[in-house]
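Write out this protein's structure.
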Amino acid sequence: MEKVYKYIEENFDSFLEEFREAIRKPGVSTENTGIGEMASWLVKSMKENGVEDVQTFKTQRHPIILGRVGKDAKRTLLVYGHYDVQPSGDRKDWSVDPFAAEVVGDRIVGRGTCDMKNNLVASIQVIKAILHCRKRLPINLVFLFEGEEEIGSPNLKQFTEEHKKELSSCDAIICGDGSGENRMGQSLLVYGLKGMLSVELSVRSPTGTDTHSMYAGITDNPAWRLVSALGSLKNGEKVLVPHFYDDVEEPSQSEKKKYGISPNSMSREEIEEAFDLKMKKGMSASDALLEVYYRPTLNINGLCSGYTVESGMKTIVPGKAWAHIDIRIVPNQDPSNILENLKAHLAAKGFDDVIVEKTGFNAPFYKVDPHERIIQVVDSCMKKVVSEKTMVMPIMPGSGALVWLPYILGKPMAFAGSGYIHLAHRPNEYITKEQYLKGIKLFATIYNDYA
């Protein structure tokens, strides 16, 4: 591996420039901006870096790319990634152009730098390094790259089912989306993801149109109805939907000790630094970790009604109101039961006029056995290359349709990567040069050690 590491270091400038090229191809799936250009660039880059067989498959929205290299090795890894990114948001929130891949000091700043074009590009660049030093790979690799992760991967499940026979030839799956390091310099060792149930609540006025607000005293206001309905769902932090917590299992004392969930294991300040956020007042560090790892959530992520221009006024009773809700589910919870109980709860509270619809992104939870060989190899490689200091996450609080891969293929999935994942979706997203160098070395080490 020393020869491979040396090659990576000596050629790092060219690897870095190739990575910056990827950032300059927007690939915003939500807006359908630059997706085709990014997909074409990725196919070209895969071939130039030594991926022998690259195929592009059309879907109802954005293409899925399959690549293969190696066929005679003992083991095969399926490497999952996504080439699409989130919208950049308001340009005024960025210190530089979000798609210029500017280098600011030791940082490469741009949308997608840590979610997840860093690990996407590094996972294929390392092939060139290994082939140059060894002439052949120690492992067979199958790459599955999609362009719809940021919109819920609507075509990934069907594609995986249709190609199950060829994809299930792998021994394990590596996901470069969802692992890296925190601001405390700890490698994140991740063993699963929470599931997701997406729901829309909506209310319409009796007429279905806006009404002059002088009649507000005699007609129902959809915005007030919706706000009242939403208020019935929670009391403080407790979700009031019947049976919501029935199947939730609290961790054992040994689990709490293993994952640092105890009154003195971490301080509030350390958690805030690790996750780069501000905790709720009065919440202890141990309670925060229990919430993050083991407890389901019900969250409003969008709320709209009436006249929403920042300045000005329009005196109306709105004709409609809607809210988008995401419910993060943990092991043993059944999303279909939660949805039916949510509908029954609103009906029992008198909100028969509130329409409840399952929408958007939905996925099951996933939890892998930490004793699986791929997990132990990845954990070891993360410690060797990214940081010896670690933060073990039994279940990451995020969600992803990528969990259909281990469910459908019946193979264990590990998470590996570099960079600060807490910067994902934020303005001024960045990765440092050192972190990107570590990322290339990390994939080289995983490919070598799992062989």
